[in-house]
Amino acid sequence: MNAILDAVSLALVLAGALLCLSAAVGLLRFRDVPTRLHAATKPQVLGFLLICVAIALSLRSWPVVAFLVAVVLIQLATAPLAAHMIGRQAYRNGTIDEPSLYVDELAQSRETPPAAGG
């Protein structure tokens, strides 16, 4: 049974490492902000999650699992928030290709600045 769990954890580490590598390549190769944000959040978080599951399977300890649950929850909470803030700032700076947007939900916020009160 230990050999099977070790093999599964090895496979999970390799899959997680490949996902994190693909996220890094996507950050370097993609040309615009939304696609880079997609590459930075989706495969990286999934790869991190797979690596954490592999660590939990490999060490087989409840304190380690409890610690990894907290780490994964923090990662799942901060990655989308950071991507949202970077995307919003890129929109405000004008570095997003606006004709490629299907829906522009922030168009009204451009007309009236948020601190203007009107």
Walk me through what this model shows.
The model has no long low-confidence stretch (mean pLDDT 88). The longest helix is centred in the middle third of the chain and has 32 residues. It contains four helices and no strands. The protein has one domain. The chain has 118 residues and is mostly helical. Helix content is 78%, strand content 0%. The termini are far apart.
Structure summary, number of beta strands: 0
End-to-end separation in angstroms reads 66 Å
Q: Number of domains in the coordinates?
A: 1
Helix proportion = over 70%
How big a fraction of the residues is strand? under 5%
**Gyration radius, rounded:** 19 Å
- What characterizes the major β-sheet? none
Q: Structural class of the secondary elements?
A: mainly alpha
Q: Calculate the mean pLDDT score and round it.
A: 88
Helix and strand sequence: HHHH
Please count the helical segments: 4
Low-confidence stretches: none
How would you sum up the global shape?
elongated
Family: Belongs to the CPA3 antiporters (TC 2.A.63) subunit G family.
Protein name: Monovalent cation/H(+) antiporter subunit G
Keywords: Membrane, Transmembrane, Transmembrane helix
Pfam family, one: PhaG_MnhG_YufB
In a nutshell, what does this entry contain?
With 118 residues, this protein is mainly α. The chain contains four helices and no strands.
List the helices and strands and how they pair.
Elements: H1 2-29, H2 33-59, H3 62-93, H4 107-111
Attribute tags:
elongated, 118 residues
